[in-house]
Every structure is written in C-alpha cells, then in structure tokens.
Design goal:
The chain is of the alpha+beta class. It has 3 domains: about 260 residues, BirA Bifunctional Protein, domain 2 (2-Layer Sandwich); about 100 residues, no CATH class; about 120 residues, Rossmann fold. Strands 23-22-24-25-27-26 form a 6-stranded mixed beta sheet, sandwiched between helices. The protein has a 5-stranded mixed barrel with strand order 9-10-18-11-12. Strands 15-13-14-16-17 form a 5-stranded mixed beta sheet, with helices on one face. The protein binds zinc ion. The site of zinc ion (ZN) has 8 residues, from loops.
Length: about 575
Amino acid sequence: MGPSFLVLSRRFVSTNTIFSSPLPKLSKKQLKSLTTTDLLIKFGYVKQPHAGITHWLPLGLATLRNFEDLIRGRLREGGVLETSLSSLSHSSLWHKTNRWNNEELYKLNEDFCLAATAEEEITDLVKSYADSYKKLPVLVYQMTRKYRDEKRPRGGLLRGREFIMKDAYSFDVDEQCALQSFNKMNEIYYSIFKDLKVPFVKANADSGSIGGDLSYEWHFVSDKGEDTLYTCDNCHTTGNIEKVRPYVEKDAEPAEKAAVTYALTTNNDLVCFYYPEGKHLNIKFIEAEDIIDLNTRIVDQKKVLDIFGSENEKSDGFKSIIRITDVGIGPGTEMPDMAVPFMKSRMTTFENMELTEVQEGDRCSNCEGIGHLHASKGIEVGHTFYLGKKYSIPLDATFVDRNGEKQFYEMGCYGIGVSRLLGSVAEVLRDDGGLRWPAIISPLQVTVVKSPAFEDASVDDNCRVSRLVQDLDTLKVRVELDEGESGLGTKLNKSKQLGIPLQVIVGKAFPKVEIEVRGVISGDKGMRAIESKKAEWGFETREVKGIVKHFVDIDHAAEVIRLMLKDL
Ligand SMILES: [Zn+2]
C-alpha cells in the first residue's frame, strides 16, 4: 500500500466549487415550494441572468454532459453520425421552405438568423455529398445550441430562448427505406428513455387517420405535466388530447341537446360551433381543417356577439354566419336559438365535423371502440417525424437513383431538447427533500463522508477509505469524498438535496460502512446480486431512527455500491 492510494484521479466534478458550496440553508417549506428551476439555481447547477437564458455552472454542466453522453452513446450504437452545424443560418434557405416569416426566429439581419432547427441547412449540406442512391441512407445528428425568440419564456429549462437540442435527420431513397430509418430512430429513442428510468410513453402525434402513425411525441408520465394524454385500456395506444379523436359509432343516436360556442373569423364574420352538450369543444381541431380563418384572440362570448352585432349593422345585415356542427349532432338534436338576427342566404353550414375532445372513459377509435380511454398527464421530451419530401422538394435536394433518374430524398427528423430533458427529469423526480437524479446522469453518484466517530482513526484505516474511493473511481463510479469543513449532517443533507443517489458514511460501524439511498429505486437486479453474496460481504439492512441503512464491510463496499447503482 503506497502513497499512490492517496492520489485520486479527479476526473469527476466536485460539489465543492465556488458556485455551489456551501449550499444555502433552505427550510422544509422552501424545499417543498420552490420551483424546480429555483432549486437548480440555488444549488448551483445553473444561473439564469434573464428569462429563458441559462448559464451552465460546473455541477449543471457535468449533469448536462451525462445526458449528452447517454444520448450520444445510443445514437452511435445505431450508426447515426455526429455533425455540428454553424449556429448562423442563411435566409436564402429559409425563404425556399417558406419559414423565414416566423416570429420566433432570431433574425440578425436580412441575411442571417440564429438556427432554431436545421432541416434547411442539413438538407442543403447532405445534398452536396449524397448525390447517388449508393450513398444512402444517411443518418446524421448534432447536439448544439438552438435559438427561439419566445415571447413568453417560462418553466426555466423547459422553454428557453436558447436551449441545447439533439436534432437528427434521415435521408432515404424511398418511402419504405425512410420508414425503416424512422423505426430505427424510434427504437433508439426507446432505449434512451428506458436508460433514464423515468416512466415514459410514446404518443401518436398524428390524428390516427390511415397511414398516420408517422409522428410520435415522447412524454414523461407525470402529474406535473402540462399535456393531457389518453391511453386505451385495450390496444394500449396513447395520444395527446390535441390529437385524439373520439370514436364515432356507425348509426349512433345523435345527441339530445346541442351546446353552442361563438367565435369570429379574422373578417369578423360569426362562427357558431354546435356540439353535444357536456362535451368540450377544441377549436384547434377546426384550425387544423383549414376551412376558416379564426380570430382566436377574442373568446369572450358576449364580446364576440357584440362585435359581430355592430359590424353586421354597419354592413346592413350582410355579414356572414358560418355554422359548424359536430358529428354527434343530428336531425333529432335540440338546437339552441340563434343569438343574433340573421339572413338564411348569408349562412353557410359545415356538418359532421369533429369538434370535441375525448373525455375519460370515451371509447377508443383506434381499436374500433373496443377499449376505453383513460387520461394521464405528460411532459413532452422528444419528437420523431416522418417528413417525406416536405423539405427536399423546396430545397431541390435530389440524388440519382438506380435508373439514372433524379429523385427527391425521403426524409425524417428527430428531436430531443437536451436541456429541456434535464429540466424535466429534475421536475418529475424531485420531492420535498430536493432533487433526485437517476444514477446514469447524476453529476455524482456517491458521496463519501467521514463521521466524527472516525476522527481519531489510524492512518491505515484512513487509507482504506481512500482505497474505497479509488476503487469506485476505477469502477467508473462518479464519487466524491467530501472533506469540507462542515459537519456530518450538513454534508449528508447537501448530498441528498443535490440529488446524488447514494451517501456512504464511514464511522461508527467501521470497518463496516453505512449506505443511505436518496435515489429512486426502479429495479432489483443489483440488490439480488448483492443478496446472493450477503454473508461473504458482511451485507445487512437495518432501519436506524426511521432511515433504511445498508451496512457492508469496507473492503466489499465498492462492489456493493456498483451493484446498488444498477437499481437507481
Ligand atoms: Zn384502443
């Protein structure tokens, strides 16, 4: 045992940096009520100098890098090539795809914008290389900063003006190959989210029409989510409420009574939506149909009718009225009286439209009404799109096929907001005691602290602690021995509040160490392996003052910790 044991390689982040040490003392109430972003700021992960803008501090950056490494590793396994495009993108490309007139684009001048996404640039880049079918498919990605001029940035890392995004793109010779690339990327997404061990679901982002399963939203399932998802208890498909359409039974009885909601067009014509009483109207469904230009800013019903009334008077009663009725409305349905004077000749009617949202217990249209739909909440963390030729045609991106003919690429694009993902994991897993990270992305996985009982320990015993840290380091466990000034309780609290999955205490029980678990347990593979060696390693579990503690001989602690981390 030489002095080299005391020289630890410091490959990993330390919590003892000027940015995070000591942690602010937060009351239980504060810990519970602070937003997740405020926790990340108070604990020294990030700093937000302005709304929607994030500075990454050492602890936050280490965590972000772990997310990136996880994603990068899975993409590399799938053979997706990494690139990194400039953040400056030329307007000429955006004009071609008709996307330059987007208020959320950060335009620097007439020529350049800060890239918000890269369909234009990457397509233009790939077309100069993959000019033959022999060079396809191409699957590329980048993990870079993106910019969006959010008028109302919110949620800290969830919706920022600048964010880190992993955006991937696929280029194929035909639809069939493009779908293979699309499926492959979805499999990669599945393994990324599975690695994170946060409950997730893949939701249909298309309306479910034929050939529509070509775009998925990936959501963390959490009551804290903003999106409402519906999952069928029979066919198990999930969809966002914005996209799921109700099951319409053939020859179903029409609703007894209709409800009405009024709206204006941008031209101040009146729109009357009729739908079964008790159902919820979703105007977005009509917007998607593209049959009228709705003014969605004025929703107050009295205001809508007042505006229409005065405009109608001005034009001598010649303003149009557009009636839109839901599929659930039929000849027998009792309709409400018209709220304004009207001329039949100025009235247009669209019938059998789908206007209402699904509700808890509704029947599922995907399995022909066999299953019932149940609601849950989700946070969107990824999206996969099959694009077809949407971008290759306007950008004139072609290759020469087998027969020597020019063809447009069949494309797909695939996004994960990496900084948003970090914020979402923090949001979903935090509890009243602070943050909790999954072991795979935690900035540190283990904190080792010496208790006052160890103060007078011999040099040899201290060497055994150093060796434990060294062994963990060798096993690629991210570990820190906290030798700061503060007391045992403060050090443990700090480690737990920061969200580090395991705390190891050396002291009272020496040569056994105590292990406390802060992380979320989501498996038992590691623990089962430990159980089988229990006697040999001196491993036992006891509750001490309401806290579950694991004890193990220090010489076997590294192996036990490695196994425990598998379940966290
Ligand atoms: Zn179903």
